[in-house]
């Protein structure tokens, strides 16, 4: 599983070679949380260019996951730049809508995997238990004679 700081995906990013300032435009520091924040940001050509580039990026999800994991717990004011095609206040809204990881469950293990965050020990244990249980059921079913069907 990749670490929060694993940025290997960047090699395939559409923004490779682009100036970093393109994604950290001054207008984004306004941190406006209103519904018109995106419209205000889109009035600036560098912001539109950055968002258009993100829209075509093959690793947009990896980029967004990296930002969401790095910014975990931060309010909109603690988020900066365009990541994964989203403005800071949009990522804050997404973070508030994202359910917490169900630690200590097989489902929690899958949430870690989908979000590309390191696995916690309770979720690792739950996944091991789930796999052991699944393998046990498979063995039991394999060793049981098939029941004859009667008409």
Keywords summarizing the entry:
elongated, 6 helices, 151 residues, 2 domains, single chain, mainly alpha
Largest sheet: none
The count of strands amounts to: 0
Secondary-structure element order, as H and E? HHHHHH
What percent of residues are in strands? under 5%
Count of alpha and pi helical runs: 6
Distance between the termini: 52 Å
Please state the average pLDDT score. Answer: 79
Overall, the morphology is: elongated
The amount of helix comes to 40-55%
Structure description:
The chain has 151 residues and is mainly α. It folds into two domains: 8-97, no CATH class; 106-143. The chain contains six helices and no strands. The protein has helices at residues 37-41, 45-55, 60-70, 88-97, 106-115, 121-143. Helix 5 (106-115) crosses helix 6. The longest helix is centred in the last third of the chain and has 23 residues, at 121-143. It is elongated. The mean pLDDT is 79.
Secondary structure layout plus pairing:
Elements: H1 37-41, H2 45-55, H3 60-70, H4 88-97, H5 106-115, H6 121-143
Compact summary:
The protein is mostly helical and about 150 residues long.
